[in-house]
Design brief:
Elements lengths: L11 H10 L4 E4 L3 E4 L9 H11 L4 E4 L3 E4 L3 E12 L2 E4 L3 H5 L5 E4 L4 E3 L1 E11 L5 E3 L2 H7 L12 E2 L1 E17 L6 E4 L2 E11 L19 E4 L1 E12 L3 E5 L3 E12 L3 E7 L9 E12 L13 E5 L29 E11 L4 E6 L7 E11 L7 E5 L4 E2 L10
Parallel strand pairs: 2-3, 3-5, 4-6, 5-9, 6-10, 8-11, 9-12, 10-12, 12-13, 12-14, 13-15, 14-16, 15-17, 16-18, 17-19, 18-20, 19-21, 22-24, 23-25, 24-26
Antiparallel strand pairs: 1-2, 7-8
The structure holds 2-acetamido-2-deoxy-beta-D-glucopyranose (12 copies).
Family: Belongs to the glycosyl hydrolase 28 family.
Protein name: galacturonan 1,4-alpha-galacturonidase
GO molecular function: galacturan 1,4-alpha-galacturonidase activity; lyase activity; polygalacturonase activity
Amino acid sequence: MKPNFARFAHSAWVAVLFLLHVTRGLEVRAGNSCTVAPLGPGQDDTDQVLAAISQCGTNGTITFEEGSFNITRRMIWDLNNAKVDLHGFMNFVPDVEFWLNKSNTYQVVFIQSQSSWFVVTGSDFEIDAHNTGGIQGNGQIWWNFFSNLTKDDGDGRPISLTVYRATRGIIRNFLIDSQPFWCNCVAESRDVIYDGMLCNATNTNPEFAGTNLVPNTDGIDTYRSDNISLLNWDITCGDDCLAIKGNTTNLLVRNVTCNGGNGIAFGSLGQYFNLTDIVENVFMEDLRMIRLPTSVQPDMETGVYFKSWTGEVVGVPPVGGGGGPPNALKPHPTLTFGGLHFEDWTGNSTGSTIVSFACSPAVNCTDITFDSFDVTPPANDAPSFICRNVTSVVGLQAPCNATW
Ligand SMILES: *[C@@H]1O[C@H](CO)[C@@H](O)[C@H](O)[C@H]1NC(C)=O
Ligand SMILES: *[C@@H]1O[C@H](CO)[C@@H](O)[C@H](O)[C@H]1NC(C)=O
Ligand SMILES: *[C@@H]1O[C@H](CO)[C@@H](O)[C@H](O)[C@H]1NC(C)=O
Ligand SMILES: *[C@@H]1O[C@H](CO)[C@@H](O)[C@H](O)[C@H]1NC(C)=O
Ligand SMILES: *[C@@H]1O[C@H](CO)[C@@H](O)[C@H](O)[C@H]1NC(C)=O
Ligand SMILES: *[C@@H]1O[C@H](CO)[C@@H](O)[C@H](O)[C@H]1NC(C)=O
Ligand SMILES: *[C@@H]1O[C@H](CO)[C@@H](O)[C@H](O)[C@H]1NC(C)=O
Ligand SMILES: *[C@@H]1O[C@H](CO)[C@@H](O)[C@H](O)[C@H]1NC(C)=O
Ligand SMILES: *[C@@H]1O[C@H](CO)[C@@H](O)[C@H](O)[C@H]1NC(C)=O
Ligand SMILES: *[C@@H]1O[C@H](CO)[C@@H](O)[C@H](O)[C@H]1NC(C)=O
Ligand SMILES: *[C@@H]1O[C@H](CO)[C@@H](O)[C@H](O)[C@H]1NC(C)=O
Ligand SMILES: *[C@@H]1O[C@H](CO)[C@@H](O)[C@H](O)[C@H]1NC(C)=O
């Protein structure tokens, strides 16, 4: 998709009118294009950033120059037939108490009532951050702040980049430094391509070296979205690298490196007793799951995992839930995982359990195949393959027995 700007060239007097309203630092040129440079230390860039989006975010182009844009309040970028060149960073002011007040963020992500400080919406747009720009999350301040506090879903910690109700959008070569919480979320969107994404939640506080100070820093959560592509991602996090949540369909994932964290998660599905969660036609290839040195972070006990809530309602979302969809065999859920095909896997596991499935006896897991699956346990350990309530599994080098 390349927006066609030629058709929307504005006449010179329009540009002059824009200049009358421009905020300091924002330059508007003919042809509906805006250029914005950071105002500099101690200054607030939020007004001029939002002014550029409002003036050039439809049928236009916006260039954010290199450097740091000081963002002090929540933002929605509504982009339609627009191109954004983001050479610098949107630097979200690290005022934890301010952002935790939910009236200072958006609650557009329905699942777990998560909060967002930066929402991109619209259609036919491209945001290219040229591998020099993106979002500065100032996460270290957040991780320190929460080090001795309970961390709950929906507690107000903001998602760094939320793509919401977007159609035919491209996010390219985008850097997100130290996300406080989920790095990305795409919700209620379709036909979106992320090509080039770096998320880096790395603790540098020596007090917490060797522990996972960065829980909930998921690379992305996908929800209620169709035809999304995640290409060329590099994620360092302390939680799900990718979390494929309910009603994600036709998802393509290619060339993703997950450093630390919990690997790739499907779910958790079934948190809302009144909603069915469908995940269908997910294709992933060229994945690398890499443990970090334990001096940095101890996590990554799984490469890929599938999780669902139980069939019983225990508490309410965002923290509790379960029971979805209703069924007569509580506490076993009727959520079923099937059609799971693993091809060309190589590598080493830290323990002897290579594969473990514990499925709901109400429905079982079905049709699981392995092809060229060569993951080995530590030397002298016999590999163990566990299958509980699985109807069909083939291709492992030993029987998948129901033992723990
Ligand atoms: C960001 O803007 C706020 C409000 O004007 C100001 O207090 C703060 O110093 C600025 N931060 C930076 C890094 O410039
Ligand atoms: C943008 O372009 C579309 C398609 O030509 C047109 O209908 C719309 O009025 C334009 N909007 C603005 C704000 O220029
Ligand atoms: C949250 O912010 C709103 C709007 O500024 C304010 O009215 C409210 O008192 C704040 N709540 C808390 C708990 O600080
Ligand atoms: C949490 O840590 C902060 C900073 O280290 C400290 O000021 C605060 O008292 C601690 N809170 C609790 C509940 O331990
Ligand atoms: C999926 O999205 C891409 C990118 O917007 C688009 O080119 C493609 O046509 C879409 N596929 C379908 C089946 O809609
Ligand atoms: C991630 O962040 C850490 C800590 O700031 C830094 O040392 C490292 O170089 C970063 N990695 C990448 C790939 O940017
Ligand atoms: C895979 O993605 C990384 C960025 O995470 C990129 O540097 C590399 O060139 C990509 N590899 C291929 C084969 O495209
Ligand atoms: C499902 O339940 C949630 C509350 O848990 C509610 O917000 C939502 O509107 C309900 N959805 C439907 C379709 O009933
Ligand atoms: C998922 O899609 C199905 C079918 O359209 C719908 O019934 C269900 O409510 C959706 N679930 C969520 C979580 O949106
Ligand atoms: C797995 O371990 C073996 C033996 O220690 C080593 O040679 C190999 O490089 C490791 N493979 C990976 C993918 O780390
Ligand atoms: C199926 O699951 C039930 C409930 O968790 C368990 O009691 C049973 O042993 C499982 N069946 C097999 C063959 O593992
Ligand atoms: C589920 O799988 C188990 C084997 O683990 C089998 O004994 C049982 O009959 C299956 N149940 C259903 C409902 O297919």
